[in-house]
Design brief:
The protein has two domains: 2-168, Beta-Lactamase, CATH 3.30.450; 172-230, Arc Repressor Mutant, subunit A (Orthogonal Bundle). The chain has eleven helices and seven strands. The chain has helices at 11-18, 23-38, 65-71, 82-86, 104-110, 145-153, 155-171, 175-185, 190-197, 201-215, 220-230, and strands spanning 2-3, 6-7, 43-48, 55-61, 91-93, 117-124, 130-138. The longest helix has 17 residues, at 155-171. The protein is elongated. The N and C termini lie far apart (60 Å).
Length: 247
């Protein structure tokens, strides 16, 4: 299937991507698989940005930039999306929301792109908080029960992925803090980090405390584990900074 210049890989490529050790590749493989199997012409995955009313786009396939931007904005506050976000456990299509095709989002944003149906799946944590969503739209009007079931099977994968993206965004580590975290992951003590980066022990201690606070963990071991889970600050090579010690 091809739409808006987007080619869907063959099944061999999709299968290879879906078992990749690279999370980014695996997510793209899952999206391509779902697009082929459900007949969706477009697909969008986004996470709920911390302390934000809108969403942050992670993946967008088959949408124009303007439509992708609109669909990842604060759609949760729009009347035509109230029903979709009111039940976190249900995958909702246009048929489930009869007023949607004539709403602004349906009539002015999606139908001019050639779409006649689509779905939205809200992603939530165990406490029911919205952590993200995925949407897809299609030119044909039917969104079958089989397609709905297939999308549901991907919910845990997408939920885990967007939760990770949220945690990375929430951490908002500075470049120096990322450098410190990388060395923590490498097992270096504060004194060793001090020597490596030519920083005073007190400065290193301050950076470490900030890293722990931002990651929401109690100690450096937990920080290293959490950073590995989030894909943050992989251990790196020795710094090439000039050898003068900061105060």
């Amino acid at each position: 299937m091809t739409r808006a210049g987007i080619d869907t890989p063959d099944f061999t490529s999709i299968a290879t991507a879906m078992v990749s050790p690279d999370t980014e590749v695996r997510i793209r493989g899952a999206i391509d698989f779902l697009r082929v199997e459900t007949g969706c012409d477009s697909f969008l995955l986004a996470y709920k940005a911390p302390q934000s009313t809108g969403f942050s786009l992670v993946k967008s396939i088959g949408y124009s930039d303007a439509v992708a931007s609109y669909l990842s904005s604060d759609i949760q506050s729009l009347p035509e999306f109230q029903k979709q976000f009111s039940d976190h456990n249900r995958i909702t299509d246009w048929v489930d929301v009869p007023e949607f095709p004539d709403s602004y989002s349906g009539a002015q944003v999606l139908r001019p792109e050639g779409f006649t149906n689509g779905f939205l799946m809200v992603l939530h944590d165990g406490a029911g908080e919205v952590v993200g969503m995925c949407q897809a739209n299609m030119e044909r009007p039917e969104f079958s029960a089989r397609s709905r079931c297939m999308i549901e099977t991907a919910r845990p994968l997408f939920t885990k992925y967007v939760t990770r993206q949220r945690a990375r965004a929430r951490a908002r580590l500075t470049p120096r803090e990322q450098e410190i975290l990388a060395l923590l992951r490498g097992g270096l003590s504060n004194a060793e980090i001090s020597d490596r980066l030519f920083l005073s022990p007190r400065t290193v201690s301050t950076h470490v405390e900030r890293v722990l606070r931002k990651l929401g963990v109690a100690n450096r071991v937990a920080a290293a584990v959490h950073a590995t889970e989030l894909g943050l600050a992989a251990p790196n090579a020795p710094s090439s900074r000039c050898p003068h010690r900061a105060p």
